[in-house]
């Protein structure tokens, strides 16, 4: 259950990061409300996951999901670069997340 909470926390991290971009420096109400709500939900779920998961693993997975999700959202919604080097960086992030999960089970 804590891994599900952690995954959802990562998804809500992508939500709030994307909403911050759309809020234009918190000058647009709708995206600003989504950003703050997404942040609070994300932190709440992360704290739930950390009740039983190691700090280093939980935080790394949370930020990794956020980084990969924000990378994908940037490409899909904001026309950001989809270069080979950026994809390699994303692959390395996912590899690190996988190793953290495996290492946390030892």
TrEMBL record:
Main location class: membrane
Transmembrane segments: 27-46, 58-78, 84-103
Keyword set includes Transport: yes
Gene3D superfamilies: 1.10.3730.20
Membrane topology recorded in Swiss-Prot or TrEMBL: Multi-pass membrane protein
Keywords: Cell membrane, Membrane, Transmembrane, Transmembrane helix, Transport
Localization, UniProt: Cell membrane
Superkingdom assignment: Bacteria
Family affiliation: Belongs to the drug/metabolite transporter (DMT) superfamily. Small multidrug resistance (SMR) (TC 2.A.7.1) family. Gdx/SugE subfamily.
Record-linked PANTHER family: GUANIDINIUM EXPORTER, SMR FAMILY PROTON-DEPENDENT DRUG EFFLUX TRANSPORTER SUGE
Protein name from the UniProt record: Guanidinium exporter
């Amino acid at each position: 259950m804590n891994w599900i909470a952690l995954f959802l926390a990562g998804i809500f991290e992508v939500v709030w990061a994307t909403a911050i971009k759309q809020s234009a420096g918190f000058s647009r109400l709708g995206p600003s409300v989504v950003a703050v709500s997404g942040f609070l939900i994300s932190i709440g779920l992360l704290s739930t996951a950390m009740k039983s998961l190691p700090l280093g693993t939980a935080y790394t997975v949370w930020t990794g999901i956020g980084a990969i999700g924000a990378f994908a959202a940037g490409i899909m919604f904001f026309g950001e670069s989809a270069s080979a080097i950026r994809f390699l960086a994303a692959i390395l992030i996912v590899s690190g997340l996988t190793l953290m999960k495996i290492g946390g089970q030892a």
